[in-house]
């Protein structure tokens, strides 16, 4: 069984469209669906927004359903000027941009920062074999903040070298999955570009597009990784 975690209903529903035999098996404490993706058993969970919600869902899914792989799906904000709305980003490394113990001399970055998680290289290489336009691989960050401030954007890109995108759940999923020794994939589609003003307007406009693009890509990943 492969587990997929989305923060928002739109993101969850987009992946369910690629599945059959969909059953709502839980509505509390989380909404969870079992389904078939072709011949693969999947469990798709709606975590809610934010790191705590994502961590709680990830723990619950691992302990209850014991998936062999976890995929975090949905939307993200683009931090790199080479990205466009609808592009796909797969995380090679992720960290919390809002975890700050710099008062004690600890840096906030990928190199020396706390809680930095790297994806499995073999898994990433396998996914890279998929033929998808506008597919990017690189580092991401996560925090309990929808980033729209240009000051925060500049700070994040200065601290985290080469960062592509940001969201509010992915690193928490990777963190908990790593603790349980479950492989993970972060596969998000860009819903807004943080370096543009009023990116919150773009998010509302393009959430469905990002959800569909992420789901289409994850569907291909499920086919690739089903053996």
Quick take:
This protein is of the alpha/beta class and 227 residues long. It has 6 helices and 10 strands.
Fold topology:
Blueprint: E1 2-6, H1 9-16, E2 20-26, E3 31-37, E4 40-46, H2 51-65, E5 69-78, E6 88-96, E7 116-118, H3 121-127, E8 135-142, H4 150-159, E9 165-167, H5 170-179, E10 184-193, H6 199-225
Parallel strand pairs: 1-4, 1-5, 5-10, 6-8, 8-9
Antiparallel strand pairs: 2-3, 3-4, 5-9, 6-7, 6-10
Helix pairs in contact: 1-6, 2-5
Helical fraction: 25-40%
Please tally the helical runs, counting DSSP H or I stretches of 4 or more residues.
Answer: 6
Structural class: alpha/beta
Low-pLDDT residue intervals, each spanning 5 or more residues: none
Mean pLDDT: 94
Main pleated-sheet profile? 5 strands, mixed, barrel
Order of helices and strands: EHEEEHEEEHEHEHEH
Query: How many runs of DSSP E, i.e. beta strands?
Result: 10
Termini Cα gap: 11 Å
Arrangement of strands in the largest sheet: 5-9-8-6-10
What overall geometry do the principal axes of the alpha carbons give? Answer: globular
User: Beta-strand level of the residues, as a percent range?
Assistant: 25-35%
Rg calculated over all Cα atoms: 16 Å
């Amino acid at each position: 069984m492969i587990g997929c975690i989305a923060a928002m209903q739109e993101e969850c529903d987009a992946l369910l469209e690629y599945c059959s035999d969909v059953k709502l098996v839980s509505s509390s404490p989380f909404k969870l669906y079992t389904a078939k993706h072709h011949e693969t058993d999947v469990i798709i969970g709606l975590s809610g927004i934010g790191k705590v919600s994502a961590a709680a869902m990830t723990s619950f899914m691992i302990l209850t359903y014991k998936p062999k792989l976890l995929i975090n799906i949905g939307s993200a904000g683009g931090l790199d000027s080479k990205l466009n709305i609808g592009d796909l980003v797969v995380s090679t490394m992720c960290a919390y941009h809002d975890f700050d113990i710099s008062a004690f001399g600890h840096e906030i970055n990928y190199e020396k920062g706390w809680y930095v998680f790297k994806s499995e290289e073999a898994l990433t290489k396998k996914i890279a074999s998929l033929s998808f336009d506008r597919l990017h691989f690189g580092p991401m960050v996560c925090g309990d903040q929808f980033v729209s401030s240009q000051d925060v954007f500049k700070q994040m890109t200065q601290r985290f070298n080469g960062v592509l995108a940001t969201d509010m759940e992915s690193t928490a999923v990777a963190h908990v999955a790593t603790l349980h020794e479950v492989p993970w994939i972060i596969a998000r589609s860009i819903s807004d570009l943080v370096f543009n003003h009023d990116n919150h307007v773009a998010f509302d406009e393009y959430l469905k597009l990002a959800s569909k693009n992420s789901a289409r890509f994850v569907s291909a990943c499920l086919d690739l990784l089903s053996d």
